[in-house]
Amino acid sequence: MKIAVDAMGGDYAPKVIIEGAITAAREYGCQIALVGIKERIEEELRKIPDLPNTIEIIHASEVIQMDEPAALSIRKRRDSSIVRSIELLKQGKAEAFFSAGNTGAVVCAATLGLGMLSEVERPGIAIIMPTVKENPTLIIDVGANIDAKPMHLLQYAAMAQAYYCHIFNYDLPSVGLLNIGEEEAKGTDFVKETYHLLEESHLNFQGNVEGKDIFKGKTEVVICDGFIGNVTLKVSEGVAEAFGALLKRELTSSLMAKIGSLFVYNALKRFKKSFDYSEYGGAPLLGVNGIVIIGHGRSNAKAIKNAIKVAIKEVENNVNQKMLESVKKLTYSV
C-alpha cells in the first residue's frame, strides 16, 4: 500500500511531516510517497538514520501557502505538492493521500481531480470528538461545504454512518442532527427539511442534538452544515486550549497545588490524551472518489503518523465502497 504525503503542507513542514511519515512507514509497513520540493525533502531525509527502503520522493516544484485562495491556487500552481498528490491518487499510483496544508486547496483539488462518489453531490470533512463515553463522536461537515442543502446533509449522514461502522467496528451508529433544541419543530426551515429527510431514511436517526450533547456522546454521528460545523470545531479547540492553560495556572499557583498535582499526575496525563487531536490523526474528506485525509496545520509527527494509520484503515476496509452502498439506499427511502 502506498500513501502519498504532502511533504510541504503544514506549519512545521517538511521536517515534522517527514518524521511522522517515516514513523508510519516503520510501524505499519506501508510505502510512502513524499511529494514536494525534492532538495528540501532530501535534506531532511539525510538526518534520519536507518531510513526505510519504502520511502519515495515525488518532486513538485511549487507550494500552496496556507493563506492562498483555494480555487485560484490549484489552477495557478499545477506543479504544487497538493495537485501532484491528487494526480497520483487519480492515476492509481497511490491508495490514499494526506495533507496538513491548505484545507480549501485540498478540498478543491480532490473534488475537481478525483470527482465525487456516484450519487454524492458535495464532499464533507468529518472529525472525531472525544466524549465521556467509550466511543467518540464523528461530526460532519466542519468546513468543506458552507452552502449546503438538506440533501447534502442526508448524504453526509449515510456516509458517516457507514464510515463509523467500519472504522470503529460499531454495528449500528446512531445519527443526530445538530440544532438549537431537541424538539422536532426547532430550527430553521433548512434544518426542519433535513430532519424530515433523515427521519424518512434507512439511517439510525435519533432526532436533534444540541451542542452540549456532542461531548456527552448522545449519538455516534452528528450532522451539520460546514459553517456551523467549523464554528463548533473552532470553539471546541479554543475551550480545550483555555481549559488546559487555566488548569496549568492553578496547579502551579502554590507549593501545595504543585504537590497535589503530583498525586493526580497520571490521571491528568490520561485526561490530556483524550483531548489531544494528534491521537486521532486527521479528518477524512468523505464523498470524493478517493481516500483523502486532512490534517491540522499544527500537526506534529504523532498526528501525521496516526493520520496515515487512518488512511490505511480506510483502504483496508474499503470504506468508500461501503459509503457508496449506504448512499445508494437513500434513493429508495426518501
The CATH topology of the largest domain comes to Isopropylmalate Dehydrogenase
Number of domains: 2
Spatial strand arrangement across the major sheet: 3-2-1-4-11-10-5-6-9-7-8
Distance N terminus to C terminus? 38 Å
CATH class of the largest domain: Alpha Beta
Helical content class? 40-55%
Q: What overall geometry do the principal axes of the alpha carbons give?
A: globular
Structural class: alpha/beta
CATH homologous superfamily identity of the largest domain: Isopropylmalate Dehydrogenase
What does this protein look like?
- It is a single chain.
- The protein has two domains: 151 residues, Isopropylmalate Dehydrogenase, CATH 3.40.718.10; 126 residues, Isopropylmalate Dehydrogenase.
- The chain is 46% helix and 15% strand.
- Strands 3-2-1-4-11-10-5-6-9-7-8 form an eleven-stranded mixed sheet, with helices on both faces.
- The two termini are 38 Å apart.
- The model has no long low-confidence stretch (mean pLDDT 91).
Summarize the structure.
The chain has 334 residues and is α/β, with parallel strands linked by helices. It folds into 2 domains: 2-120 and 287-318, Isopropylmalate Dehydrogenase; 124-242 and 270-276, Isopropylmalate Dehydrogenase, CATH 3.40.718. It contains 12 helices and 11 strands.
What's the helix and strand layout?
Blueprint (H helix, E strand, L loop, with lengths): L1 E5 L8 H14 L2 E6 L1 H8 L9 E5 L10 H7 L4 H10 L5 E4 L3 H12 L9 E6 L7 E4 L9 H18 L7 E4 L10 H11 L5 E5 L11 E3 L2 H26 L3 H9 L1 H10 L8 E4 L4 E4 L6 H16 L2 H11 L5
Parallel strand pairs: 1-2, 1-4, 2-3, 4-11, 6-9, 7-8, 7-9
Antiparallel strand pairs: 5-6, 5-10, 10-11
Helix pairs in contact: 1-11, 3-5, 4-5, 6-7, 6-12
